[in-house]
Design a protein that fits this description.
Elements (H helix, E strand, L loop, with lengths): L1 E5 L5 E5 L3 H26 L5 H6 L3 H7 L1 H9 L3 H18 L1 H4 L8 E9 L7 H11 L3 E5 L3 H9 L2 H4 L2 E5 L7 E5 L3 E3 L13 E4 L7 E6 L8 H11 L9 E6 L7 H7 L3 E3 H4 L21 E6 L3 E8 L8 E8 L1
Parallel strand pairs: 3-4, 9-10
Antiparallel strand pairs: 1-2, 3-14, 4-6, 5-6, 7-8, 8-9, 10-12, 11-12, 13-14
Helix pairs in contact: 1-3, 1-4, 1-5, 3-5, 4-5
């Protein structure tokens, strides 16, 4: 459409209509699509660098769901190029996230093994709630983080000393303490976990009916500010699996499966127990807050030879983490 007007010196001036609306519509569509496309590239290629991008990457499951919105906008607006990019974005994010909700576990014969892990938030976790879970679930191994001397005494007074008399403890009055408890004989293994971050004791647990199983209580620093370097270093220094010994890593990794650093660790022979049974998107942090838990950073990583029968996540008052309980089978 064009407009015309009489010129004061004769003739007619014709002004062509501008295509502003069409341009604006395309631009807004790309504004909606581009951030999700960039997120998908960063997630798939493992490009997160620095503290803030690393923290944001834990929100990938929400980004995957949100990517449907720009896809719908582009499709309704009939923007072919934007629709194609949006579809690729949603597909990439979906393939990154959905396997955790679908599960890929196969039945594996072997000895039953139950593992429980809980971050006790400076030892403030409710002792009675922990003991209730221990009596109900009957774990063979209990992995604790932020374990204080006071929490050790309270757990023993509540009956843990009788139920799980074997322990390798590195408790301290800070967030750095950790400890492994077991129903079976346990031998401390020095120099297995990296001397980076919080204390991460390792032990060899003598399960009945077969070879012993190696456990590492995992708790690197969170990737906040300059600590992101030590967080990366700690995850990179955790031991790989071994053909000679079944190894299990359990604890607060301060990492989700959307972090490249954790995926690199998995690539060294591990699988996430929760993801194996379709429970990999159940959030574990922050618990007992005004907002519900939103990210999954507590894990039980197992050797590829280990079967996963069931994984559940349970609330424990007094701490900002939820407990993870895994029922496994080991060769």
């Amino acid at each position: 459409m064009s407009t015309s007007a009489e010129s004061p010196i004769g003739g007619t001036i014709v002004t062509p209509a501008r295509r502003r609306r069409r341009f604006t519509g395309s631009a807004l569509t790309w504004v909606a699509v581009s951030p999700f496309a960039a997120w998908a590239v960063a997630r798939v290629a493992g490009l997160e660098r620095g503290s803030l991008p690393t923290q944001l990457m834990t929100a990938t499951p929400y980004a995957a769901a949100g990517s449907l919105v720009p896809l719908l906008i582009a499709a309704v607006g009939r923007k072919r190029a934007a629709t194609a990019v949006a579809l690729l974005t949603t597909t990439a994010l979906g393939f990154s996230v959905l396997p955790r909700a679908l599960g890929t576990a196969e039945a594996t014969a072997g000895r039953p093994l139950k593992v429980m892990t809980i971050n006790m938030l400076y030892g403030r976790a409710d002792i009675d709630a922990i003991m209730k879970l221990v009596r109900e679930f009957e774990p063979d191994v209990l992995s604790t983080q932020e374990l204080t001397p006071g929490a050790v005494a309270d757990l023993d007074a509540a009956g843990l000393k009788e139920l799980m008399p074997h322990r390798v403890l590195e408790d301290e009055w800070s967030a750095g303490g950790s400890g492994l408890y077991s129903k079976h004989a346990m031998e401390q293994l020095p120099d297995v976990a990296p001397p980076v971050g919080h204390k991460m004791p390792a032990a060899l647990v003598s399960l009945p009916g077969g070879n012993p199983i190696e456990f590492v209580d995992v708790h690197p620093y969170p990737p906040l500010g300059p600590n992101v370097t030590q967080w990366n270093d700690a995850l990179a220094a955790l031991p790989s699996t071994s053909p000679d010994r079944v190894r299990i890593l359990a604890g607060d990794f301060n990492a989700s499966l959307d972090h490249a650093a954790l995926r690199k660790l998995l690539a060294r022979g591990y699988k996430d127990a929760a993801a194996q049974v379709g429970a990999g998107l159940i959030p574990t942090w922050p618990a007992n807050k005004r907002v519900p838990p939103i990210i999954t950073i507590d894990h039980v990583l197992v050797d590829q030879r280990v079967g996963v029968r069931e994984v559940s996540v349970r609330d424990v008052p007094g701490t900002d983490h939820r407990a993870v309980l895994a029922a496994l089978t080991v060769p």
